[in-house]
Amino acid sequence: MVNVARQATVRPKDELPVYDATDLTQGGDLARIKLDDKLYTLRITRAGKLILTK
User: Fold this and answer.
1) 24's torsion region: left (phi>0), alpha (psi -120 to 50) or beta?
2) In whole angstroms, what separates CA 5 from the centre of its chain?
3) Taking Cα atoms as reference points, which of 21, 20, 12, 16 lies closest to residue 41?
4) Which residues have CB under 8 Å from 7's CB, separation 6+?
5) Are 18 and 24 in contact (CB under 8 A)?
6) What is the pLDDT of residues 1-32, one digit of tens each?
7) How many CB atoms lie under 10 A from the CB of residue 21?
8) What does the pLDDT average to over 50-54?
9) 34 or 9, which is more confident?
10) Spatial separation of the C-alpha atoms in residues 31 and 21, rounded to whole Å
11) Residue 7: predicted pLDDT
12) Residues with Cβ within 8 Å of residue 29, at least 6 apart in sequence
């Protein structure tokens, strides 16, 4: 079996995509984020912090 790791692209910080968490949650405090076949939950807390859980 061959284990193939994803190659990371190195770019300057100013070239990284920026996403507004309130856009992702559509004005609410929860959003689901999919990576491959896994779903994660993004939550904005009352204190304005972000929590990402599996």
Assistant:
1) alpha
2) 20
3) 21
4) none
5) no
6) 555 556 666 777 778 999 999 999 999 999 99
7) 13
8) 98
9) 34
10) 9
11) 62
12) 43, 44, 45
